[in-house]
Amino acid sequence: MKKRSVLLLEVLTAIGLFSLLMSCLLTVYFRLAIGAKEIACFRESLQRDLQLIERLEQLLTKIQPVKESERAFFYTEKSVPGQTRSDSLVFTFDNGLDPSPYFSSIQLGRLWVNSDKQLCLTYWPELHPFRSEQYRSEVLCDGVERLEYLFYTPPQTLQPNEDVAIDHPPVGTTASWLPQYKTLPALFTLTLVFSDRPALELPLYFPQAEYPLLFPEGVRR
Questions:
Q1: Which one of 74, 90, 119, 216 has the minimum C-beta count within 10 Å?
Q2: How far apart are CA 170 and CA 37, in angstroms?
Q3: How many CB atoms lie within 10 A of CB 44?
Q4: If we measure between CA atoms, which residue out of 221, 202, 205 comes closest to residue 50?
Q5: Is 40 helix (H, G, I), strand (E, B) or coil?
Q6: Within 10 Å of residue 48's Cβ, how many Cβ atoms?
Q7: Sign of the CA dihedral running 118, 112, 44, 59
Q8: Sign of torsion over alpha carbons 51, 54, 55, 56
Q9: 96-104 — which CB contacts under 8 Å span 24+ positions?
Q10: Would the CA dihedral through 98, 102, 104, 108 be positive or negative?
Q11: What is the pLDDT of residue 169?
Q12: pTM to 2 decimals?
């Protein structure tokens, strides 16, 4: 029996089909690789956001009033051109135990955004504003354009026919909190506006406020 030879056309057809199949497989592979990389980046970004939220909650839920009568312990400070990109938040908080006794217990903290778009926390062991040579500063996050604040005081803070004093927080919402208020808002939302991704909001409820938000019985906070 005579053996049939393979034609050149058949060889070229087989090579073409093989190339088409490999092209499809490689396209799928590269798409999967890109998708896996995007998922890894998303997970990394989510992990950073969760760590940032945890750190901010750790700080802001440990706010402590200062015993001295004339000392403000929670307020916003106007931005300084060339130094800060937005208003800063100044507060005293309990830092707990620290290897250095200077940074244990009550600290004066400042949350601010520097000119390099970095969210920074700076705190001092002394309770007079920013005049101690001993301080710590840490970068909490990069790529922050500015900080935005929203403070809320419930209506029951004012009694009928009572005038609003300058040292009394306004009823409702406000974007700044003055040093003379000497109290905490009932609700506080801190918004981090980023340059390359959606903003991050951190809402906080302060039950230790002088005029807290009252919930109906049976409603979960």
A1: 216
A2: 48
A3: 10
A4: 202
A5: helix
A6: 13
A7: positive
A8: positive
A9: 96/62, 102/134, 103/136
A10: negative
A11: 83
A12: 0.75
State the Cα–Cα distance between residues 195 and 185, nearest whole angstrom: 28
Q: Which amino acid type is present at position 219?
A: V
Helix extents (H) in the chain: 8-60
Provide the total of helices (H) and of strands (E) in the chain, helices listed first.
1, 9
Burial class (CB in 10 A: 0-12, 13-18, 19+), 196: exposed
Assign 3-state DSSP to the chain and report helix, strand, coil percentages, each to 5. Answer: 30, 30, 45
Q: What pLDDT, on a 0 to 100 scale, did the predictor assign at position 183?
A: 84
For residue 128, the model assigns a pLDDT of 53
Position 150, amino acid? L
Q: Which class for 112: exposed (0-12), middle (13-18), buried (19 or more C-beta within 10 A)?
A: buried
Regions in the chain scoring below 50 on pLDDT: 157-158, 160-161, 163-164
Q: What is the pLDDT of residue 157?
A: 46
CB contact set of 95 (below 8 Å; sequence gap of 6+): 62, 103, 104, 105, 106, 107, 123
Q: How many other CB atoms are found less than 10 A from the CB of residue 72?
A: 18
Token representation of residue 148: 């935005």
pLDDT at 126: 66
Name the residue with tokens 């926390």. Answer: 121
Contact between residue 72 and residue 179 where contact means Cβ atoms under 8 Å apart? yes
